């Protein structure tokens, strides 16, 4: 489980940092349907892209720790889940977005519980709290 947690943590870090840089570089062009949204939305999107780069770097920091700190994973996964909740609120208020935003919402709602479960399992294993599995005869 430690290896799966490390791979997912690294993947989260690189994906978030890359997506963030993409938004900083392209502004409105990085958001489907926002190309004509104007300077205010472009400014906000580029700023939030930079924040997302920092978020990705936090995941990469966690991935480099030995062991990966479960507390950091819980916090980072909670932030990711909050982003998914924000998408659900937007859906409720404004209706269905572009299809890729739905895919992202599914990932943002579904992946955090997996990450927390893996981090908790790894933390328990490191403490020795895992029940021994009886040997088969």
Question: Characteristics of this structure?
Answer:
elongated
Can you walk me through this structure?
The structure is a single chain. By secondary structure, the protein is an all-alpha fold. It has one domain (2-127). The protein is built from 4 helices and no strands. It has helices at 2-26, 39-64, 70-94, 99-127. Helix 1 (2-26) runs antiparallel to helix 4 (99-127). It is elongated and about 55 Å long. The two termini are 25 Å apart.
Main beta-sheet annotation: none
What is the average per-residue confidence, as pLDDT, rounded to a whole number? 90
What's the helical proportion of residues?
over 70%
Q: How many β strands by DSSP?
A: 0
Supply the number of structural domains. 1
Q: What is the 3D shape?
A: elongated
**Low-pLDDT residue intervals, each spanning 5 or more residues:** none
- Give the assembly state of these chains: single chain
**How many H/I helices?**
4
The fraction of residues in strands falls at under 5%
CA-based gyration radius: 18 Å
Given helix and strand content, the structural type is mainly alpha
Between the first and last Cα atoms, what is the distance in angstroms?
Answer: 25 Å
Secondary-structure element order, N to C: HHHH
Write the SSE topology:
Elements: H1 2-26, H2 39-64, H3 70-94, H4 99-127
Helix pairs in contact: 1-2, 1-4, 3-4
What's the quick description here?
By secondary structure, the protein is mainly α. It has helices at 2-26, 39-64, 70-94, 99-127.
């Amino acid at each position: 489980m430690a290896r799966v947690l490390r791979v997912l943590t690294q993947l989260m870090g690189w994906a978030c940092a890359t997506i963030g840089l993409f938004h900083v570089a392209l502004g409105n062009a990085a958001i489907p349907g926002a190309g004509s949204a104007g300077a205010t939305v472009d400014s906000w999107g580029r700023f939030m892209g930079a924040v997302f780069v920092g978020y990705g770097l936090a995941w990469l920091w966690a991935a480099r720790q030995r062991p990966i700190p479960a507390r950091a994973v819980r916090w980072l996964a909670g932030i990711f889940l909050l982003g998914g909740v924000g998408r659900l609120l937007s859906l409720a208020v404004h209706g269905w977005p572009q299809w890729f935003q739905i895919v992202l919402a599914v990932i943002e709602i579904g992946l955090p519980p997996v990450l927390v479960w893996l981090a908790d399992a790894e933390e328990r294993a490191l403490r020795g709290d895992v029940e021994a599995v009886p040997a088969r005869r």
